[in-house]
Amino acid sequence: MTETGLRNERHLSMNDLVARIDDGTIDTVVVAFTDMQGRLQGKRLHGRYFADVVVDHGTEGCNYLLAVDVDMNTVGGYVISSWERGYGDMEFVLDERTIRVLTHLPATAMVQCDLVWLDHSPVLQSPRTVLQRQLDRCAERGWTALSGTELEFIAFDTTYEAAFDAGYRDLTPVNQYNVDYSILGTSRAEPLLRAIRNTMYDAGLDVEGAKGECNFGQHEVGFLYADALTTADNHSVYKTVAKEIAAQQGRSITFMAKFNEREGSSCHIHLSLRGQDGALVFWDADAGRPTPLYDSFVAGVLATAADFTLLYAPNINSYKRFAAGSFAPTAIAWGHDNRTCAVRLVGKGAAARMENRIPGADVNPYLATAAMLAGGLHGIEQGLELEPELVGNAYDSDKPHVPHTMTEARERFATSELARAAFGDEVVDHYTNMADVELAAYGAAVTDWELRRGFERL
Fold this sequence. Notes:
With about 450 residues, this protein is an alpha+beta fold. The protein has helices spanning about 15-20, 45-55, 125-140, 160-165, 185-190, 190-200, 230-250, 290-310, 365-380, 405-415, 415-425, 425-445, 450-455, and strands spanning about 30-35, 40-45, 60, 90-95, 100, 110-115, 145-155, 205-210, 220-225, 225, 250-255, 265-275, 285, 290, 335, 345, 355. The chain contains 13 helices and 17 strands.
């Protein structure tokens, strides 16, 4: 952050926001937090009400917002929220560092929030709190975490409404062929990509650029790394705004991990540690090599990968990505600049970092980054030694595999002593129940695949 406390000069201070409300430049303030599914939830408040009431007194929301399925159905099994508990409120605590203008919407600003109970104790199950607790563990050791997320999506020349009516079948992608690194192919989608890039820059994100990917209509917009909380905050805003811009243009975007039988959409997470003074932690400049601490950190991420997969792959669909030869990992292994491994090490000096290739585009960035930090800290605390790198094709190796179903990942997470030590029983039980809800819903569903195979022929 700068000396003003702002993350950069494109963010607003609270005084700036109130001044813009006073002069009529801003008339709507989105107050939002990120839920279990990685979605922004909250309220649109009239600017005058926000300035006169919310700035000093805050606002609230129902605690069921951290205890619903993807369809917003109230479901059982959550300790923090139920009919028996009366579905009470949580307080939204404004984080003034996150105030940004959303230029794709008229006269609108956004501020992101932490969640606390009415006695002001933190909501431990909130994704932002889960990440903050791991960042606090790093800070106790004199470290800060830097991260970057590479988030892919597939765009369609079909509105969200038409896609719904079509059952999400036979949609028209913005490209009809593989446009990986293609300038011609990305030009076809440039009105959408340009609007996303420029709107995100205005909203305080440091935009690198856009490139095509392998699946038809698949693209990626890249952003510079930042401290891990900023990156997770920006990631959540970007996903929502990208969908809103697509809708404004009569298009739609999906961040599903695996939309069809072709390449899935990933969210590779890059991570490194620095001293709080900016000193390198992962690289020994004198020796010109990674530090033993870096090795132990990576060893810890690998050692906990199976136990923590539920936080990297939080949906039934997530596990469809893990296929040989797909650029999504199956083997829990590491390699230097090796994209067949779950963990890829890249860069030297200040650029030395690990890339976790397990998460898909449906990941919750707060939970996944928290899992990486918890795993890395476990490796450091236990002095784990890093196994030899995997050279060659990890898909053909005998390394342990990433859990291949949500059922397996759920069992590993729920019974993991490492997870309970790192996150606490409240968090583990909460997200285990989230998995149970999704597994039950999937188990009750009759799919198109079953109908096609069985309607007539069985």
